[in-house]
Structures are given as structure tokens and as C-alpha cells.
Amino acid sequence: MAAAGLTRATSAARPLMRLVTMSGVPVLQQLHLEERLLRTTGDNWCIINDGTAPPTIVMGVSGRVSELVEIQPVLRDQVPIVRRFSGGGTVIVDQGTVFVTFICNKAAVTGLQPFPRDIMTWSGQLYGKVFDGFGEFHLRENGRLKQHHVSTLSISIFKYLWFMSTSIMLTAMYYSARKHTDFLCRMKEYMPSRSFFTDGVIAALGEQFSVEPTDIETVLSDDDDDEFVPSTKMLSEQDLEGIASSKESLIRV
Q1: Which residues form the BPL/LPL catalytic domain (predicted)?
Q2: In a domain? residue 1
């Protein structure tokens, strides 16, 4: 009885982590949800989105479209471009991408200093448990695990909270100038299933947090901030045409 009581006390002492799991939600809707939770709540959150549609280019808040995107093919193929509220690189996401986002109070993880390197170390240890037994994978600042890219990262630090989003590529995406196998590997070649990865993340979280599954409807109904306006935006066709025209003008000059 004493041992059982100690187990319950230990579990109760863990900070609460509210978990939202989704599948196939458009990345714009996902980012709006993350930004809302970050800016209007003080809770710890983990948001997992297994795949997204349609295929979308996602850019960091300070990325320059003219330097990072081939605009004419994007306009021709009608590929959406989303500029998120946080920093980070530019990536194409689709059904082969699994998103894992952490929003944490600065006091949630004992001993964790709210600096990017410390947050990277913590998340690297968490993902290390998920990948244990599936090769030498180590989370690094450039989004690499082992010798290949399988993820992109975005970290932001605010007054009371920190935010980290990881996009795990389960299938390869191509860069035209290089063979994709030169710089990408597919996680499905190492893990038995997508659910094995997401279940592993949740299990690893459960070692540090009291994880509470929460559905989207509950999240939105709990949020009474009707004045919230997300800064994450989808670039319009007019925006892209204007950027393309400006770029062509500079080339002619």
C-alpha cells in the first residue's frame, strides 16, 4: 500500500501536459491552433498532427520568399505558401510529414534553462527514447538525425513559455539539384509504422509529465478570447505575383 501511494504521489507531482492528436489537418489550421494556445493560455501542450493536406510550403516569419521559393512554378502548380508566426527554415510538408509541437511553461521541466540549446538538448533526449533501437539518431540544430535530414525545427522563447515545433519527414522530398538520398532518409525505412513513432513520443512524455488527452473542440471551447487574430498567414496569389514582378524587375536592371 505504501508503494502504491508513493507511485500516485510521484505521478501527481508531474506537471500537466495537455495532448492534442490530429490527423491530416491542414498545416495552416494547425499553426493557428498552436499560436492561439501559445498566446492565450499558460498551459503545457503537445500537439501532434499526423500528415497534412494539401502539400504546402511553410516559411519562417523572417524568410524572404524571393530568395527561398521558385515563385513561377508555385503559381503554376497552385502550391500554398504559409508564413508561420515563429522562426525556422522553409520546408514542404504533406501527408508524409508528422508534426510534433511542444508549448511549455518555463518552469515545467526541472533544470531546463529557456535557451535554444537547452531546449534542443531536452528534446533530443526525448526523441532519443523514441528512436532507441532504430539506429544512431541524434537531434541536431540543423534538423539532422544521423547523417541525413529527417526533420526541420522551429524554436521560439517568450516571457513565460517556450515553443518548439519539429516536422518529421516520413517520406522523402526532393531538391532538384541533388539526389534525395544524398541528404534525406525516410523514417519509414527505420520504424515499423507512423503510429509507432507518435506512440513513442507520447510514452516518452509520460515519463516527465502527467499527459492529458484533449480534443480540439474542447480546446477551442475553453478559449474565450474572441479577439485573437493569428499572425500566421497564407500568402495570396496577388502577393506572389507582386514578388515575382519585383524580382523580374531587379533582374532586368
Answers
A1: 28-108
A2: no
Grid coordinates of 96: 508524409
Query: pLDDT at residue 142 above 70?
Result: no
Q: Report the alpha-carbon distance of residue 100 to residue 203 in Å, rounded.
A: 14
CA 74 to CA 241: how far, in whole Å?
10
Q: Quick one: cell of 14?
A: 508531474
The more confident residue out of 47 and 223 is: 47
Helix (H, G, I), strand (E, B) or coil at 149: strand
Name the residue range of residue 115's domain. Answer: 15-252
Lowest-confidence segment of 4-18, 104-118, 127-141, 157-171 by average pLDDT: 4-18
Q: Is residue 6 part of a domain?
A: no
Cis peptide before 54 (omega within 30 of 0): yes
Task: Write out pLDDT tens, residues 204-238.
Answer: 999 999 999 998 877 777 665 667 899 999 999 99
**Grid coordinates in use for 167?**
516536422
Predicted TM-score of the model (pTM): 0.83
* Number of domains into which the chain is organized: 1
CATH of the domain at 203: 3.30.930.10
- Return the SS3 of 45: strand
Domain contains 63: yes
- State how far the Cα of 243 lies from the Cα of 66, in Å rounded to an integer: 7
Cα separation, 122 vs 110, whole angstroms? 11
Q: Check if the beta carbon of residue 157 is closer than 8 Å to that of residue 39.
A: no
Q: Looking at this protein, which amino acid is placed at residue 205?
A: L
Q: What is the mean pLDDT of the chain?
A: 80
- Going edge to edge, which strands form the sheet with 151-157? 151-157, 161-169, 97-105, 45-50, 16-23, 210-213
